Amino acid sequence: MKIGLLTYYGDLNCGTNLQAYATFSAIKNVYPNDTVEVIPFHGFKPEIRPYKSINPTSIFRDIIRIQKYRIFKREWLNIKRKDPIINNVETALRYIASLRFDRIYVGADTLLELDRITSDGLSAYWLKDIKADKILIAASSKNVTYENLSPRQKNEMEQAVGQFKYIGIRDSATAKLLSHFVLSEKIYHVPDPTFTMDIDRNITRQYLKKKQLNIPNKSVFMHLYGNDVWADGLAKHFKSLGYAIVTPRPYKFSDIVLNDMGPLEQLGIYGYFGLVITHRFHDCVFCLKNGTPFFVYVKSRKTFMTSDNDSKHVSLLKDFGLYPYGFLGCADDGISIEGIDERLEILKRRFKNEKIKALLYGLRQDYLNFLKMTV
User: What pLDDT, on the 0 to 100 scale, is given for residue 274?
Assistant: First the structure.
């Protein structure tokens, strides 16, 4: 049997590439005697560019990072042939159909989002009318709501959802959307595939040793957007408490800049920090796996949250009993650091709880059990 995985990959986002690798690895493990491939296709252009900087050293490190991600795509995702970018939905569907897969897994990440298409319809990732056994596995629609769909989108979504053999989604917002088209009991909540990953800490240790870099125990990793002006005050606050500021892109307040890591190097780096502040969903997952407290925020309520203020970030925090303590809010509403020290103490206590380890193990097993059920 020829099995395809339709997923995001190939940009410079650690989480995007590791969720692809985790899904790919899990599927190969349950189909050891079949051909399993990541479908070499992009519905939009992957973002591959250096961070804005006039510092030659920073630009050089960005080039190193880009090369590491290219190697990861080739060696770990086994994508060694041309992977076209096809924006036109009908053309993309014809291309996927031409590869003649017997079964296609769609996930994980926000594959079902509609932000990136300009036509009144669905993206190619919904695989409408593709002839194969089709399975959603930990897929997410991000901020798509039933109320905001056009009549055509509602009609096409009903058809597309009905063609999936199994429906496994990652968050409650996606479950709410799909429940308009299929009975709720046919929708399975499937954890993100990165919960199944084992962390090879030697890869991160070798990276730090090669750079001759020692990260202080009292450090905060700040993964921000380039225009988060409120972050200056946040960095100043933690510096006043004696924290070193570590960032994945250069800022004027950075003590250490780590902009030359590959995906597997970054996976283990979260265990070196006392705190992480991020807008990335997978940063949160990797913090949980490394036992590191974190605060998460979203950049835009309109882009990342549904009309009832749900999001993949909020769902994750609620699953682990970390909401509202670990949620900083929406950047476009303004981020306040009032009471942040008290909230951090609460997070630290909760991260020492054996309950988190038990939840991590349970989510790993839930993902693998769903995948085995679909075989």
Answer: 96
